[in-house]
Amino acid sequence: MADTFPSDSVGLVTPQTLHFDAPLTLDCGRTLPRYDIVYETYGQLNANRSNAVLICHALSGDHHAAGYHSEQDKKPGWWDNAIGIGKPIDTSRFFVVCLNNLGGCKGSTGPVSLNPDTGKPYGPDFPIITVRDWVNSQARLSDALGIQQWAAVIGGSLGGMQALQWAIDYPERLRHCIAIAAAPKLSAQNIAFNEVARQAIMTDPDFHAGHYYEHHVIPRQGLMLARMLGHITYLSDDSMRAKFGRELREGKINFSFDVEFQIESYLRYQGRSFVDRFDANTYLLMTKALDYFDPASEYNHDLAQAFAKVKAHFLIASFTSDWRFSSARSREIVKALLDNKKQVSYAEFKADDGHDAFLMPVPHYQQIFRAYMQGIAL
Is-catalytic flag, 157? Predict the structure, then answer.
């Protein structure tokens, strides 16, 4: 393995599946009678089971956070720069678990799964899932793994929202909560971006009201547009200028509506590649979960009240160029925690990568992240 993969890599990993027969009641009022959760683990669980870390993924993420599924893999998992030997989430210290959330399209029960009542894929009949539903299903996964308390629950973006929900709903079951590039709720502008993305998918002629599986098609154009729109919001103006500027593919203007600028080529490539690996119904579900997240809504819209009973220590991190989940939103979380005299560390990192910075190996970010994780007692 050392000859095949970098020395700090977790190496070859194999996804695992847990089946649950106990019904899961959801916020929407419906019940999943049974379901599967696909997950991966890295590192070793220690004797007293005190070193387990849960990674919660963002909108288009999945269970494959680190390592490789085969020696032919060109790319490792989506957070490989943060998980491994000597990395911020050090697998020589921690036992790391990452799962594909319910409603996903990478093996956990979701729209592409067979509905036991019909024998056909759920499609649009799969229930709308909330962040709380995910956290409840993750708690059942931790029970099945024999983990009564996480050393830390960690996530970026939508994953950070799940980490916050964990701290609120299961205060005794995590010692540290790390929320990176997250927010206490989406702004109206963010909800608007999500709605445009959903409309792009739902108005595609091949969407068929979500039953496109039965027609053996996918709403390719709509999903591609949704991803292109989303990708623009994940980047910053500075990062796009640095990568592409106004560079022309052929060095001249062709006076056409075909691809001329490099940024156009890049966005189309991102859109096309996303269509080949992600399900449109799952995209709709994930964006709705983002829209609905608002833990303060159950506490008279007082975020401090929502955090009143949390017991975890917190690391809240943000990035200067992230305009979709700005640093101001992270500071709202910090203030609400401090209003309750909770233990919280906050770091704002200078980075030009926009919202995607939480996935990048930004040196100062990784340094602080690593230092915080090293301070977690096991």
Answer: yes
